[in-house]
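Problem: given the chain below (158 residues), write out its structure.
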Amino acid sequence: MNSVISKSDLEALAKRLRNEGKKIVATNGCFDLLHVGHVRYLKSARQLGDVLIVGLNSDASVSKLKGPERPVNSQDDRAEILASLECVDYVSVFTEDTAIEFLKLVKPDIYVKGGDYKPKDLPEYPTVEAQGGEVRILQHIPDKSTTSILAKVKNGEA
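Solution.
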């Protein structure tokens, strides 16, 4: 059962899942306009464990990261859409600039990011490593991003 879970319930959920012997995979992002790159990424992440928990940037943190015209969709809408995906087990909105606090609560076995990141360049890397987790970078899917979709719309190409 897919679910949007509050930050206050996140730690208890993760503890229960670990006690059940589940391998927890976590990722995070804005997921503003859901597209095929997101879907492929989330499916790949889910295959790495038993449970996928997605940390979702709040509206305020998306605006801070992406600019004042973003997000296009509200955090509640983005959370509901993500939670409806078969590959996503839980979604939790976080307000901080990074996913560090989210990861301190979840304590994932595997933390996944996409794109051209290097694990040690991620601000979350030390937190995941200190908790005994592993950071994995999944293959970047070129030309599949919310930013590129919005640019096409703005330029009349979509």
